[in-house]
Amino acid sequence: MRSSLRIARASAPSSFGSLRTTRLSLGGSLYTRTSALASARLYADDASKAKKKIDLTDKSDEEIIELVTAGKLHSHKLEEYLPGNLERAVRIRRLGLEAHVQAKSDHKPDLSKLPYQSYNYDSVYGACCENVVGYVPIPLGMAGPLLVNGKLVHIPMATTEGCLVASTHRGCKAITESGGATSVVIADGMTRGPAVRLPSAKRASEVIAWVKNTDNFYLLASAFNSTSRFARLNSIKTGIAGRTLFLRFKSATGDAMGMNMISKGVEKALDVITDYFPDLEILSLSGNYCTDKKPSAINWLEGRGKSVVAEAIIEERIVKEVLKTTVQSLVDLNIQKNLVGSAVAGSIGGNNAHASNIVSAMFLATGQDPAQNVESSNCMTLMEVAPNGKDLFISCTMPSIEVGTIGGGTHLGPQSTCLDIMGVKGSNLTNPGANARALAEAICAAVMAGELSLMSALAAGHLVRSHMAHNRKKDPQVSEPHKLPDFTNTPSENDSPKEEKFGACVVGDKK
């Protein structure tokens, strides 16, 4: 039976807000404020004197909540107070959250639809999230398989946008049936751009000259590389504004996305520079010259993370039968939309239809940093008539895909499983960095599949109809299963299918 929590409003400060619990009832048991506060003082005094960790394992939930609301213990340290029982810490924090919201607004939130049980919080605590009150499930779909560099790869996509998986799946089918995609990493290097300040612009220019000296670069690289088995400094790009100097360090980072790794290396390199320039002031380890999680021209021009190009030739027959359009229609639309339209909009890195859709969904599914979708979605989609004069040539150039197969959220169970399905889980022990590069190549190829399908829907005028069919149910409370089509039987030229449905997503001709 779920415990009920009754709590009165008052003005005492606490980790859950300004609450003073006068009476607490959970599951019928009663706990008085006086004894709770006495216990709180006892625990606080003992912890202060002995300087040891507090263990509240033997205390009831209501006692612990009273200690927290009294301001004697910290809500964010519940996992520390309850070693070996992280789920209980989450449950208690939820009860406190309910009490705080109710006391502040006279409204008791219903947390029953926010799950928290049966989750491996050991993988989260101290690594991925703080003040945990549960987790938010996101539907996971699979597109493909997509033939990339001669291998069939399933494409995991976590999304709440109807039609996205189905449309990407159609693009995968068109590419795979036409012989597959080639995807290659042409550059690999994470960046960090600290900001430093010198007494004058002239002095800053002297630092620039010093850094550009080959012998000095090797000196910095030696210090930088000493911080990791995988970090290898590739280059240092400089920028200046007045007497403020920006240094963009670029380094290989193995199978990790590499932000923490490169930050350690940059700190070590800056120590060397300050030895030679003691009047140099370090303003920030990141001066936005990196650039991380923000739109920027430098990532578009210079690259960040993995710079990838994917390409494929789609047979004219496949364009007609699977994509329901023509090669010339796609070529014309791509010029006007992705090239001219993006130019008129003044877009940087946005010469594409919806690369961010696929990148975001795959990032969530594989444990990447979703905020890095900003620069990772930089993409130029090109389409032209193939050299044979009838098929379609398509390519996607993505200069700044920031991914890793270790670190961050990649070790969480579901995300790790998705990486495993793709065949890129963890570190590549024989060829460090190969798994992360393969993931980036698969993402770029999947983006190309998504571009191909959406552009086809736009060219054929099917976009609105497909989304209305897929995203607008008569009764939003009723969940109906969506089925992907059976692609085992490809229609011949003699067949004249009027429409092809992906679940409720219509992508064919309907008259």
UniProtKB/TrEMBL annotation:
InterPro entries: HMG_CoA_Rdtase, HMG_CoA_Rdtase_cat_sf, HMG_CoA_Rdtase_CS, HMG_CoA_Rdtase_eu_arc, HMG_CoA_Rdtase_N, HMG_CoA_Rdtase_NAD(P)-bd_sf, HMG_CoA_Rdtase_sub-bd_dom_sf. It is found in: Endoplasmic reticulum membrane; Membrane. Pfam families: HMG-CoA_red. It is a multi-pass membrane protein. Signal peptide: none annotated. GO terms for biological process: coenzyme A metabolic process; isoprenoid biosynthetic process; sterol biosynthetic process. The keyword GTP-binding does not apply. GO terms for molecular function: hydroxymethylglutaryl-CoA reductase (NADPH) activity. Keywords: Endoplasmic reticulum, Membrane, NADP, Oxidoreductase. Residues 468-511 are annotated as: Disordered. It catalyses: (R)-mevalonate + 2 NADP(+) + CoA = (3S)-3-hydroxy-3-methylglutaryl-CoA + 2 NADPH + 2 H(+). Its EC number is 1.1.1.34. This is 3-hydroxy-3-methylglutaryl coenzyme A reductase.
